[in-house]
Amino acid sequence: MQARDGHWPAENSGPLFLLPLLVIGLYITRTMNIILTSVHREEMVRYIYNHQNQDGGWGTHIEGHSTMFGTVVNYVALRLLGQPSRGGIELVENASRWIVDHGGATMVPSWGKSFLSVLGVYEWSGNNPMPPELWFCPSYFPMYPGNLWCFCRLTYMPISYLYGKRFVGPITDLVLSLRHEIYGIPYHEIDWNKARNSCSKEDLYFPHSFIQNFLWDSLYFIGEPLLKRWPLSYIREKSLQKAIKNIHYEDQNTRYMDMACVEKVLNNLV
């Protein structure tokens, strides 16, 4: 784990979703083989297997019970790192079985839905809206993203851009295969509207309130269709420009390190 210049980088090994999101980002940008040596990939696979729970899943962190978020992103990472879905690797098959037995990947919480959408194994229509137009709100507005806690703000910023663009990475044979592996029903039969508010009980900390669901549905069924039509589509385009301006600002002011691992991957994708 020693770096090329002789030092040992700081370790951030508690959360079990940081490494998989990096792998997803590298796969989408087709830089996996440029950034990672075969030894890096081998050690990444070893690390993921070492933290797999006995039931076949992964937690959101290394000491946590298995969650849909932890299990889906780590399973996807293993597949992107070259592990086969079948063929005698029991640990991979156990993970796939855990996902399907617990309702499939439509039950993953919001961050999982966003990253799977970018990868192409989940549809953007299965996400609750993350409108970039909120960046145009005045700073005193309660929903202005600039007033959010730093981790929320700097995660929402690139996700709102990717959502506004409905960006999807290259649809490869592996991506198409994953669409069959992490759902209990055929991909084309999934009800994406229902999937928006689906969340595994293992991941659910606090259920949506009636008011929250009403706001999501209003944005989903009324707001988004209107914003796709002229002249409101002009607002969407200007909002995307403002979002990416903020993203460049964050990159430049942190010398392209960004505040944290998730934000770095998202900004890199943007």
TrEMBL record:
The chain crosses the membrane at residues 16-36. InterPro entries: SQ_cyclase_N, Squalene_cyclase, Terpenoid_cyclase/PrenylTrfase. GO terms for molecular function: beta-amyrin synthase activity. GO terms for cellular component: lipid droplet. The keyword Ribosomal protein does not apply. Keywords: Isomerase, Membrane, Repeat, Transmembrane, Transmembrane helix. It comes from the Eukaryota. GO terms for biological process: triterpenoid biosynthetic process. Residues 30-247 form the Squalene cyclase N-terminal domain. Belongs to the terpene cyclase/mutase family. This is Cycloartenol synthase. It comes from Thalictrum thalictroides.
